[in-house]
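request received
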Amino acid sequence: MVEEKEITVNIKKYDENNGEQWRTYRVNANRYTQMTEVLRWIKYEQDPALSYRASCHMAVCGSCAMKINGEPRLACKTMAFNAINDKNEVNLEAMDYYKEVRDLIPDIDTFYDRMYKVEPRLYADQTVISGENEERMTPSEQKEVWKFEECIWCGLCVSACPSVKEDEKFLGPAAHAKGYRFIADGRDTKKAERIGILMDSAWRCTSCYMCYEVCPQDVQPVIAIKKTKAYVDEYPGTTEVITMARKHDDTISESIAESGKIKESKLYLKTFGYVAAMKDMMYMMKQGKIKYAMSKDTDVKNIDEIKKIMGDKK
Amino acid sequence: MEKKEYDAVILGGGLAGLMAANYVADAGFKVAVVSKVFPTRSHSAAAEGGIAAYINGNSDPNDDPEFMSYDEVKGGDYLVDQNAAELLSDKSGEIVRILDTWGAPFNRQPDGRIALRYFGGQTYPRTRFVADKTGMALLHTLFEHASGFSNIDFYSEYYVLDIVKDGNNVNGLVAMEMKNMDPIYLKSRALLIASGGLGMVYKHSTNSYISTGDGYGIALRSGVPLKDPEFVQFHPTCLYPSDILISEAARAEGAILKNNKNERFMAKYAPHKFDLAPRDIVSRSMTMEMMEGRGFEGGYLSLDLTHLGREYIMERLTLAYDAAKTFAGVDAAEEMIPVRPAQHYFMGGIDVDITGTNSDLNGLFAAGEAACVSVHGANRLGSNSLLETLVYGRETGKTMVDFLKKHKNVESSDGTEEIANNAYLYIKKETGEHFGTLLDELKETMWNNVGIFRDENKLGDAVKGLQNLRERAKNMYVTDKTTNYNTEVFNAFETRNMIDVSLAIATAALNRTETRGAHFRNDYPVRNDDNWMKHTLAYLKPDNTIEIKYKSVIVTKWKPEPRVY
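response:
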C-alpha cells in the first residue's frame, strides 16, 4: 500500500464574530494527496465548520485559490507532500488583497469587475453571424488566442500583483490577458476599442513578473501586456503614463546606442524630469535608503547584437 | 423575505443553463441565473475531450448525420428516443458554428477549418475540441457571451432550496445568499433546472465536489419524476487514486489499456473497436480483469501512451499528461498511467421531451445532465454531453421563449416562508445526525451496491439503507451557527438532495430486471426488449418510497439489434 505520513495543517480561520484565528489540524496524507482532499478530510472528520471553495479538483475551475505557505496557489494543484516544510507542516490562508468573508473564502467580486471592464466577449462580423461568410483561423493564430484564453479566473495573479495595489487605473494581469486574447483574434471586430481600453493600463504594468510566477495555467499575463504595448502606434493620442513610459524606453535605446550602457541616472531624469527626480532623491535619503538614491550604470550584455537589431529597426 | 421578479429563472450556470439564458435574454425577457458557484466554476469546465458534430463540408466524406444518430441509438443500447438522437445530430454542426461566432477557440486544420478526431463509439471521426480543455473553453465562451446581456442577472453563490408552486404552475424558487445566509424569493413563471449531475453520491467519481444532484432532489420533492435514474455511467480511465479523468481523447489518439501481464485485454472483450468501445463495455471489462487477478495491487490497470511520442502527447493531450504528472507523479511519455473506472455521468434526469418541457409542472423545463431528454439512453457516448448541453440548452431556451409569450405571471407567493423555515431547522437543532456520517454511509452504499455490477440482494439492501438514511436526514443538525458563508449548512442541504436522488437510482435499478447499457445485473445478464424496452419514471413519495411508472421509447428508424463492438 501507499506509505502515509502525518502532516500538520495550520489554517487561518475568520468569521465576523470571532475575527482571525489560527487553528491546527493533523491528518494522514500520502504522495497522491491533493490539498483539496486534506481540506475535505478536515471538514468531514475534525471541523465541519471549516469553509473553503473547491469544485473541479483538476485545476480548470479556479475555485480553490488560496495562500499555501505564503504562496498564492490552487489547493487542488498542490500536492500535500510538496506543500509541507521539513517539520511536515503547511500553512493555509485566504488570498491577499481581497476582502475576507469566511476562513479561506475571500470576496473576489473586484476581480470579476476587472474582467468585465475589458468587454470579454467576441464581437463577430455581421456577415459571419448571419452565415453568409465563414471565418477561418490558422492553427498558429488559434494557438496564440488559446494561450491567453486558458485563464480560469482564479484571481491569484491579481492578489499577487503589486501594481494593482498601488495604481487603481491598472486593470490587472488577468484582464489584460483576456483583453489581448481578443486583439489577437482575427474574428473580432472591436480591435480599435480594445486598444483604447487596454493601452493606458498596459503601460502601468511594472513587468515584475509576479503574475507569470503565480499563474496555475501558465497564461503569462505579463506577456499579453507586452504584446498589447506593441500596438501603441494604433492608439489615438497618448496619456501621461504612456508618454512617460515611452520616454523611458526611448532613453534606454538612446543610452545603449550612445554608450553600450544603461545609465540609470539619465534614465530617471529623462523619464520623470529634473524636479520630480530631485524630490524623489530627497525622499529616499530621508528614509535612509541612500543606496537606492544613488544611480549606477549597468553594462548591457551582447551589446553588438543588440545594436545591430536596433540599427535594423531604424 | 427579499423578493425579485423575473420572466425566467435558470438554476445552474453551466453550459446548458447559459445556452438557454442567451436565447431567452435575446428575445428580450428578464432572466436570473442562480448558482451555488460562479458560473465558470461549473462542472461543464471539467469536460475534456470534445464535442461531437457533423459539419457539412467539414466531416469525413462518407459520414452523414444519420450515421451519427445510429451510433447514439446503438451506443445507448436502444433506450434512446430516436427523434431526440436525430435532433442532436442534425443540429450539431449549427451549434459548433454558433460557438465559433461567439469566440470559441476550436483547434484548427492547416486550412483554417475546425479540426476533428475520433471518439469512442463513433463510426467516423466527429469530435471537435479545444486542446483537451474543451469544456472549460466553451464554458468561458458562453459565460462571456451571456455577460454582455443587460437583462441577465447572475446570482452567483446562492444556494437554491426548493421550487415555489402555485397549484400545478411554477412560481419561482427560494434561494439563500451564501455570503450572509439571507433567503431570497426569485419569482418567475418559467423555471429551467440545469444544475448538472450527482457524482458525489459515489465514493469514486470524476465529478466536481459541487456535483451533488441538487436539481434532482428539488424536482423529486416537487412531485416531478426522474426518468431512467438506474443508468449511471462509469468512466474507464480515471487516474488512480484521485479519480481525475483521463480523457477518452487519450485512447482516441492511440493510448492502449493493459493489464498486469502487459496484455491489450480489450481485444478479448471488443474485438473490433478494442479500447474505443463504449464506456460501459470498457469499464466492465476492466473490472472483470481486476476481479480475475490481472490488475495491479491497490486496484488499477495501465493506460499506455508511451508509443505516441512526447511531442504528440504534449500537443494533443496536454491535460492528460499534466494530470498524470501533477497528481500521480507519472511521466506519461515514458511510463504507463495508473487508471481505474469511476462514476462519471448520470444518463437519467428530470423527465423532459425534446423541447425541454416537463409535463408534470407547468413552466418547468430542464436541460443538460440535470435533464433526461433520452438522447443517451442506457449509456452516453463520449463527446455527446457537451453537445447535448448546447443543442438542448438552445432548444429549451427557444421553448421557454414561446412559453413566456403565452403565459402571464401569477400574483401569489405562497409557501416561500415555509421553505426558508425548513432550511433553518438544521441550524436551530442542537443535536441529531451530522451530514458527514450520513454522507459516508451513502457513498459506501452507492459504490458497493449500486455500482458497475449489480444484483437483487445488493440493490435490495441499498434501498433499505437509503430509506433509513432519508429518515435520519430529517434529523440533521449543524455545529456551525454563524451566519456568514456557513458551508456546513450547505453541505447539509446537499446531503438531503443526494439521499433523495440515490433512493431513486437504487429503487429503479432493483426494479429493472435486465441488463442494458450501463445497468448490468449479474442475475439478469441479458437485454430483454420484450419486457424492458421502456423508460422508468421514478416519483418520490413522502413515506420514503419511490413509485415507478413507465413511458415508451420513441422509435423512428432503428429496430433493436445485438450491441456488438
